[in-house]
Amino acid sequence: FPIALIALCAGVFFYGLGKLPFIGPDEPRYVQVAREMFLSGDWVTPKLGGIKWFEKPALTYWLSAAGYKLFGENEFGARFFIAVAATLGVLLVFWFGKQVRSARFGFLSAAALATCGMWPGFARAATFDLPLSVAMTLALASFFIWEQREENQGRNRFWFLMCFALGAGVLAKGLVGIVLPVAVIGLYALLVGRLKILFKPKLLLIGSAIFLATAATWYAPVIARNGREFINEFFIAHHFQRYLSNKYKHP
Q: DSSP for 49-116?
């Protein structure tokens, strides 16, 4: 099953990956930020045209910059590790399906994901949505397995894996990487009457440390280097500007 899924992903995600030019206004902008990061060697402060650009976190920039290092400054290099992340997401769904039901169930679920419209589309573009989706999938799958087998202390590793995934989600696309999955987890725990299992002090303390350590791989150095300029633009001005654009956009 895993070999079949990798072969499927190779055809759907990687075939002709570098033939299509960068799409729309977003992908060219993001890959240019990654290109400047790669050329300058500054993997902390994103820049666009030499100007600091704090619109998004660094994870996708890092993936595209790493692709440039391996394959050169081209479309394939910029998108390669996004497609790798998409493949890992498909294998993650297979693993989750196998854990909760059977290998066949996991395979069919993963194959459906790999061939649906949106997942292959985002797998073939250097944007932030696919890494975010993979991180959120890992967080939710890990939580579900931990919650189902919570009485087994050895399963706490899935709680810690969930916390790592939440940190990766914040690295991928900011606060939505933790707000959305935590909202899903909280609502689920409330509906099934198990909300109290989320408030175990030891797990919360260790999990918070894992989450913060993961997110801090970029947020700590970028704040240390750019200080209030980054905080004002990324956490305040950017989100307020998005609120205004959504509220007053033309019909």
A: TTEE--SS-SHHHHHHHHHHHHH-SSHHHHHHHHHHHHHHHHHHHHHHHHHHT-HHHHHHHHHHHHHS
